[in-house]
Amino acid sequence: MERDTGTVCEVLLDWSHGVNLSSEQMVADISAFLDQYAGVPLGQINFRDMIGDMLIMLRDNGLALPSDLSLMFKVFLTLDGFGRQLDPDFDTVAEARPLVRQALVLRYSPNEVAKHGWRGMAAMMDLLVGLPQDFRRLLRAARRGALRVHR
Length: 151
Known about the structure:
- 72% of the residues lie in helices and 0% in strands.
- By secondary structure, it is mainly alpha-helical.
- α1 (5-15) crosses α2 and α2 packs antiparallel against α3.
- The longest helix has 35 residues, at 110-144.
């Protein structure tokens, strides 16, 4: 919605667990994709073509999407037909923008951030408390020759 190529790249890289670095070509491809479809009214978008273009761009750059997004794409394709019948000038992004912003505001409210922060802090403390025992086990295994490192 915001044409933020950098954020889109980061999200796609996170979703594509094996990929480590973005290339200049990937950034250019994502930027071109966003420019092509952002702000275009529903009546002017062919969702089949858009999803096809996206999948080609992802494949060409070694990127992948989480498997549950395929269901979302099927929903978009179904809604595409209904949306064109009801209002060919309907702008999906413009209508979705306030809903997405509201969801983000709720997700990153101070209370939610504090809750997640405390959970993260508790998990870190658990890790630190168990670290000496884990380290002792590691040293014992190394001394016995039972330590294996896999690449």
